[in-house]
Amino acid sequence: MARGGRARRLGLALGLLLLVLAPRALWAKPTVRKERVVRPDSELGERPPEDNQSFQYDHEAFLGKEDSKTFDQLTPDESKERLGKIVDRIDNNGDGFVTTEELKTWIKRVQKRYIYDNVAKVWKDYDRDKDEKISWEEYKQATYGYYLGNPAELHDSPDHQTFKKMLPRDERRFKAADQDGDLTATREEFTAFLHPEEFEHMKEIVVLETLEDIDKNGDGFVDQDEYIADMFSHEENGPEPDWVVSEREQFNEFRDLNKDGKLDKDEIRHWILPQDYDHAQAEARHLVYESDKDKDEKLTKEEILENWNMFVGSQATNYGEDLTKNHDEL
Protein backbone atom coordinates (compact mmCIF):
# COMPACT_ATOMS: atom_id res chain seq x y z
CA MET A 1 0.00 0.00 0.00
CA ALA A 2 1.27 3.47 -0.83
CA ARG A 3 2.90 5.40 1.97
CA GLY A 4 0.75 8.42 1.11
CA GLY A 5 -2.43 6.45 1.84
CA ARG A 6 -1.13 5.42 5.24
CA ALA A 7 -0.20 9.01 6.02
CA ARG A 8 -3.67 10.24 5.11
CA ARG A 9 -5.29 7.63 7.36
CA LEU A 10 -2.98 8.56 10.18
CA GLY A 11 -3.78 12.23 9.72
CA LEU A 12 -7.50 11.47 9.91
CA ALA A 13 -7.06 9.43 13.06
CA LEU A 14 -5.00 12.18 14.65
CA GLY A 15 -7.69 14.66 13.73
CA LEU A 16 -10.21 12.61 15.67
CA LEU A 17 -7.82 12.44 18.59
CA LEU A 18 -7.70 16.22 18.78
CA LEU A 19 -11.26 16.10 20.07
CA VAL A 20 -10.19 14.34 23.24
CA LEU A 21 -6.97 16.08 24.12
CA ALA A 22 -6.85 18.04 27.36
CA PRO A 23 -8.22 21.57 26.99
CA ARG A 24 -5.88 23.88 25.11
CA ALA A 25 -3.31 21.10 24.56
CA LEU A 26 -1.36 21.33 21.29
CA TRP A 27 0.64 18.74 19.36
CA ALA A 28 3.46 21.10 18.41
CA LYS A 29 5.48 23.17 20.84
CA PRO A 30 4.15 26.72 20.70
CA THR A 31 6.23 29.76 19.90
CA VAL A 32 3.63 32.14 21.33
CA ARG A 33 1.80 32.27 24.62
CA LYS A 34 -0.62 29.42 25.29
CA GLU A 35 -3.50 29.75 27.73
CA ARG A 36 -4.26 26.71 29.89
CA VAL A 37 -6.77 28.27 32.24
CA VAL A 38 -10.05 26.41 31.77
CA ARG A 39 -13.29 28.25 32.33
CA PRO A 40 -16.74 26.65 32.22
CA ASP A 41 -18.89 28.39 29.60
CA SER A 42 -15.64 28.57 27.69
CA GLU A 43 -17.02 30.63 24.80
CA LEU A 44 -17.52 33.46 27.27
CA GLY A 45 -14.23 35.08 28.21
CA GLU A 46 -13.22 38.45 29.58
CA ARG A 47 -15.11 41.51 28.35
CA PRO A 48 -12.75 43.33 25.96
CA PRO A 49 -12.08 46.88 27.17
CA GLU A 50 -12.86 48.38 23.76
CA ASP A 51 -16.37 46.87 23.67
CA ASN A 52 -18.08 49.28 26.04
CA GLN A 53 -20.05 50.96 23.25
CA SER A 54 -20.61 48.36 20.52
CA PHE A 55 -22.43 45.78 22.72
CA GLN A 56 -20.87 42.96 20.70
CA TYR A 57 -19.74 41.15 23.85
CA ASP A 58 -23.26 41.43 25.29
CA HIS A 59 -24.79 40.06 22.10
CA GLU A 60 -22.45 37.07 22.01
CA ALA A 61 -22.99 36.35 25.70
CA PHE A 62 -26.78 36.59 25.40
CA LEU A 63 -27.20 34.75 22.09
CA GLY A 64 -23.99 32.85 21.39
CA LYS A 65 -21.56 33.84 18.65
CA GLU A 66 -23.37 32.24 15.74
CA ASP A 67 -26.87 33.44 16.58
CA SER A 68 -25.62 36.94 17.34
CA LYS A 69 -24.44 37.08 13.72
CA THR A 70 -27.84 35.87 12.54
CA PHE A 71 -29.54 38.72 14.38
CA ASP A 72 -27.21 41.16 12.65
CA GLN A 73 -29.01 40.36 9.39
CA LEU A 74 -32.45 41.26 10.74
CA THR A 75 -34.23 44.59 10.67
CA PRO A 76 -34.60 46.31 14.07
CA ASP A 77 -38.29 45.36 14.19
CA GLU A 78 -37.50 41.72 13.45
CA SER A 79 -34.79 41.69 16.11
CA LYS A 80 -37.13 43.12 18.73
CA GLU A 81 -39.85 40.63 17.81
CA ARG A 82 -37.51 37.67 18.25
CA LEU A 83 -36.05 39.14 21.42
CA GLY A 84 -39.55 39.31 22.89
CA LYS A 85 -39.99 35.57 22.30
CA ILE A 86 -36.64 34.86 23.94
CA VAL A 87 -37.60 36.94 26.99
CA ASP A 88 -40.69 34.76 27.47
CA ARG A 89 -38.44 31.70 27.59
CA ILE A 90 -35.97 33.26 30.01
CA ASP A 91 -38.79 34.08 32.47
CA ASN A 92 -38.87 30.55 33.87
CA ASN A 93 -41.54 31.12 36.52
CA GLY A 94 -43.76 33.23 34.25
CA ASP A 95 -44.09 36.12 36.72
CA GLY A 96 -43.43 38.75 34.08
CA PHE A 97 -39.95 39.61 35.31
CA VAL A 98 -36.45 38.50 34.32
CA THR A 99 -34.11 38.23 37.31
CA THR A 100 -30.33 38.18 37.38
CA GLU A 101 -30.46 34.46 38.22
CA GLU A 102 -32.76 33.70 35.27
CA LEU A 103 -30.47 35.67 32.96
CA LYS A 104 -27.41 33.83 34.29
CA THR A 105 -29.09 30.47 33.68
CA TRP A 106 -29.94 31.50 30.13
CA ILE A 107 -26.43 32.73 29.38
CA LYS A 108 -24.89 29.51 30.71
CA ARG A 109 -27.26 27.48 28.57
CA VAL A 110 -26.44 29.50 25.45
CA GLN A 111 -22.71 29.28 26.05
CA LYS A 112 -22.85 25.51 26.54
CA ARG A 113 -24.94 24.90 23.44
CA TYR A 114 -21.88 24.86 21.20
CA ILE A 115 -20.57 21.90 23.20
CA TYR A 116 -23.68 19.85 22.57
CA ASP A 117 -23.67 20.91 18.92
CA ASN A 118 -20.12 19.57 18.66
CA VAL A 119 -21.12 16.24 20.18
CA ALA A 120 -24.10 15.98 17.81
CA LYS A 121 -21.82 16.49 14.80
CA VAL A 122 -19.46 13.64 15.70
CA TRP A 123 -21.95 11.28 17.33
CA LYS A 124 -22.71 9.27 14.19
CA ASP A 125 -19.00 8.67 13.58
CA TYR A 126 -18.77 6.67 16.79
CA ASP A 127 -22.27 5.22 17.34
CA ARG A 128 -21.72 2.49 14.79
CA ASP A 129 -24.63 0.25 15.78
CA LYS A 130 -27.04 3.24 15.99
CA ASP A 131 -28.29 2.36 19.47
CA GLU A 132 -27.93 5.92 20.76
CA LYS A 133 -24.99 4.91 22.95
CA ILE A 134 -21.27 4.73 22.30
CA SER A 135 -19.36 1.86 23.84
CA TRP A 136 -15.66 2.05 24.59
CA GLU A 137 -15.09 -0.58 21.90
CA GLU A 138 -16.97 1.50 19.33
CA TYR A 139 -14.92 4.56 20.16
CA LYS A 140 -11.65 2.63 20.21
CA GLN A 141 -12.31 1.01 16.86
CA ALA A 142 -13.44 4.26 15.24
CA THR A 143 -10.37 6.13 16.47
CA TYR A 144 -7.62 3.53 16.67
CA GLY A 145 -9.05 0.53 14.84
CA TYR A 146 -6.96 0.62 11.68
CA TYR A 147 -3.65 0.80 13.48
CA LEU A 148 -4.66 -1.70 16.13
CA GLY A 149 -5.29 -4.08 13.24
CA ASN A 150 -2.08 -3.09 11.45
CA PRO A 151 0.52 -2.69 14.19
CA ALA A 152 3.43 -2.77 11.74
CA GLU A 153 2.22 0.41 10.05
CA LEU A 154 1.73 2.10 13.40
CA HIS A 155 5.21 1.07 14.53
CA ASP A 156 6.71 2.65 11.41
CA SER A 157 4.78 5.87 11.89
CA PRO A 158 6.47 8.94 13.39
CA ASP A 159 3.36 9.30 15.57
CA HIS A 160 3.77 5.86 17.14
CA GLN A 161 4.48 7.27 20.59
CA THR A 162 1.49 9.60 20.39
CA PHE A 163 -0.88 6.70 19.76
CA LYS A 164 0.80 4.62 22.45
CA LYS A 165 0.18 7.39 24.95
CA MET A 166 -3.32 8.39 23.85
CA LEU A 167 -5.05 5.01 23.85
CA PRO A 168 -4.73 4.35 27.62
CA ARG A 169 -5.34 8.02 28.31
CA ASP A 170 -8.58 7.93 26.31
CA GLU A 171 -9.67 4.77 28.11
CA ARG A 172 -9.03 6.35 31.49
CA ARG A 173 -11.01 9.45 30.52
CA PHE A 174 -13.84 7.38 29.03
CA LYS A 175 -14.17 5.38 32.27
CA ALA A 176 -14.24 8.58 34.32
CA ALA A 177 -17.05 9.94 32.14
CA ASP A 178 -18.94 6.63 32.28
CA GLN A 179 -20.63 7.23 35.60
CA ASP A 180 -22.60 3.97 35.73
CA GLY A 181 -19.54 1.90 34.86
CA ASP A 182 -21.05 -0.07 31.98
CA LEU A 183 -18.32 0.97 29.48
CA THR A 184 -21.03 2.57 27.36
CA ALA A 185 -21.55 6.31 27.09
CA THR A 186 -24.88 8.08 26.85
CA ARG A 187 -24.88 11.45 25.09
CA GLU A 188 -24.32 13.21 28.40
CA GLU A 189 -21.46 10.87 29.32
CA PHE A 190 -19.89 11.23 25.88
CA THR A 191 -20.16 14.99 26.21
CA ALA A 192 -18.27 14.73 29.50
CA PHE A 193 -15.66 12.60 27.72
CA LEU A 194 -15.10 15.13 24.91
CA HIS A 195 -15.46 18.23 27.11
CA PRO A 196 -14.35 17.24 30.62
CA GLU A 197 -13.71 20.83 31.67
CA GLU A 198 -17.49 21.41 31.69
CA PHE A 199 -18.30 18.68 34.23
CA GLU A 200 -17.50 18.74 37.92
CA HIS A 201 -16.84 14.98 38.16
CA MET A 202 -14.26 15.27 35.36
CA LYS A 203 -12.16 18.06 36.87
CA GLU A 204 -9.59 15.65 38.31
CA ILE A 205 -8.99 14.21 34.85
CA VAL A 206 -8.42 17.72 33.49
CA VAL A 207 -5.85 18.37 36.21
CA LEU A 208 -4.13 15.02 35.71
CA GLU A 209 -3.89 15.39 31.92
CA THR A 210 -2.52 18.90 32.29
CA LEU A 211 0.14 17.62 34.68
CA GLU A 212 1.05 14.81 32.29
CA ASP A 213 1.30 17.23 29.36
CA ILE A 214 3.65 19.65 31.10
CA ASP A 215 5.67 17.41 33.43
CA LYS A 216 8.45 16.46 31.02
CA ASN A 217 10.83 14.94 33.60
CA GLY A 218 8.11 12.69 35.02
CA ASP A 219 8.57 13.62 38.68
CA GLY A 220 4.86 14.31 39.22
CA PHE A 221 5.28 18.07 39.51
CA VAL A 222 5.56 21.11 37.23
CA ASP A 223 8.65 23.21 37.85
CA GLN A 224 9.09 26.75 36.58
CA ASP A 225 10.99 25.76 33.44
CA GLU A 226 8.33 23.20 32.51
CA TYR A 227 5.64 25.79 33.18
CA ILE A 228 7.31 28.29 30.84
CA ALA A 229 8.19 25.66 28.20
CA ASP A 230 4.49 24.82 27.88
CA MET A 231 3.81 28.41 26.84
CA PHE A 232 6.94 29.51 25.06
CA SER A 233 9.72 27.99 22.96
CA HIS A 234 13.09 29.70 22.88
CA GLU A 235 14.38 30.38 19.39
CA GLU A 236 18.17 30.41 18.99
CA ASN A 237 18.64 31.30 22.66
CA GLY A 238 17.23 34.77 22.13
CA PRO A 239 15.98 36.97 24.98
CA GLU A 240 12.68 36.12 26.62
CA PRO A 241 9.75 38.42 25.83
CA ASP A 242 8.49 40.61 28.64
CA TRP A 243 5.38 38.47 29.07
CA VAL A 244 7.55 35.41 29.75
CA VAL A 245 9.43 37.30 32.46
CA SER A 246 6.04 38.28 33.87
CA GLU A 247 4.88 34.64 33.80
CA ARG A 248 7.95 33.60 35.78
CA GLU A 249 6.94 36.15 38.39
CA GLN A 250 3.36 34.84 38.30
CA PHE A 251 4.66 31.33 38.89
CA ASN A 252 6.66 32.40 41.92
CA GLU A 253 4.09 34.73 43.44
CA PHE A 254 0.73 33.18 42.62
CA ARG A 255 1.04 29.67 41.15
CA ASP A 256 3.53 28.11 43.58
CA LEU A 257 1.36 28.49 46.67
CA ASN A 258 3.60 26.57 49.07
CA LYS A 259 6.80 28.15 47.65
CA ASP A 260 8.61 24.86 47.05
CA GLY A 261 9.56 25.77 43.47
CA LYS A 262 7.09 23.43 41.76
CA LEU A 263 3.37 22.88 41.26
CA ASP A 264 1.56 19.84 42.66
CA LYS A 265 -1.93 18.73 41.61
CA ASP A 266 -3.69 21.06 44.04
CA GLU A 267 -1.71 24.04 42.78
CA ILE A 268 -2.38 23.06 39.16
CA ARG A 269 -6.09 22.82 39.95
CA HIS A 270 -6.00 26.27 41.53
CA TRP A 271 -4.27 27.60 38.39
CA ILE A 272 -6.30 26.07 35.56
CA LEU A 273 -9.71 25.80 37.23
CA PRO A 274 -10.20 29.16 38.96
CA GLN A 275 -13.29 29.37 41.11
CA ASP A 276 -13.20 33.05 41.92
CA TYR A 277 -15.10 34.56 38.98
CA ASP A 278 -18.33 33.67 37.21
CA HIS A 279 -18.45 35.36 33.79
CA ALA A 280 -22.11 34.48 33.23
CA GLN A 281 -23.07 35.96 36.59
CA ALA A 282 -21.11 39.13 35.87
CA GLU A 283 -22.71 39.55 32.43
CA ALA A 284 -26.22 38.94 33.83
CA ARG A 285 -25.66 41.60 36.49
CA HIS A 286 -24.35 44.00 33.84
CA LEU A 287 -27.39 43.53 31.60
CA VAL A 288 -29.79 44.03 34.50
CA TYR A 289 -27.96 47.11 35.77
CA GLU A 290 -27.90 48.77 32.36
CA SER A 291 -31.58 48.06 31.56
CA ASP A 292 -33.30 48.32 34.95
CA LYS A 293 -34.99 51.70 34.61
CA ASP A 294 -36.96 51.54 37.88
CA LYS A 295 -34.02 50.04 39.81
CA ASP A 296 -36.00 47.16 41.30
CA GLU A 297 -33.17 44.74 40.40
CA LYS A 298 -35.25 42.82 37.85
CA LEU A 299 -36.36 43.46 34.30
CA THR A 300 -39.74 43.59 32.65
CA LYS A 301 -40.09 42.68 28.98
CA GLU A 302 -40.70 46.35 28.30
CA GLU A 303 -37.41 47.35 29.93
CA ILE A 304 -35.54 44.77 27.87
CA LEU A 305 -37.19 45.76 24.60
CA GLU A 306 -36.56 49.43 25.33
CA ASN A 307 -32.86 48.60 25.56
CA TRP A 308 -33.03 45.90 22.88
CA ASN A 309 -29.81 46.85 21.09
CA MET A 310 -27.78 45.89 24.18
CA PHE A 311 -29.20 42.34 24.09
CA VAL A 312 -29.31 41.67 20.34
CA GLY A 313 -28.04 43.19 17.11
CA SER A 314 -29.71 44.03 13.83
CA GLN A 315 -28.76 45.33 10.40
CA ALA A 316 -28.46 48.72 12.06
CA THR A 317 -25.52 47.58 14.22
CA ASN A 318 -23.62 46.80 11.01
CA TYR A 319 -21.18 44.13 12.20
CA GLY A 320 -22.01 40.63 11.06
CA GLU A 321 -21.74 38.03 8.39
CA ASP A 322 -24.41 36.26 6.34
CA LEU A 323 -25.61 33.15 8.10
CA THR A 324 -28.62 31.03 7.37
CA LYS A 325 -28.89 29.30 10.75
CA ASN A 326 -32.46 29.33 12.08
CA HIS A 327 -32.61 31.14 15.41
CA ASP A 328 -35.76 29.19 16.35
CA GLU A 329 -33.40 26.58 17.83
CA LEU A 330 -32.93 28.85 20.85
UniProtKB/TrEMBL annotation:
GO terms for cellular component: endoplasmic reticulum. GO terms for biological process: camera-type eye development; in utero embryonic development. SMART domains: EFh. One of its GO terms (molecular function) is calcium ion binding. Keywords: Calcium, Endoplasmic reticulum, Metal-binding, Repeat, Signal. InterPro entries: EF-hand-dom_pair, EF_Hand_1_Ca_BS, EF_hand_dom, Rcn1. It holds the Pfam family EF-hand_7. Its main location: endoplasmic reticulum. Residues 78-113, 114-149, 165-200, 202-237 form the EF-hand domain. It comes from the Eukaryota. Residues 1-28 form the signal peptide. It is found in: Endoplasmic reticulum. Belongs to the CREC family. This is Reticulocalbin 1. It comes from Propithecus coquereli. The gene is RCN1.
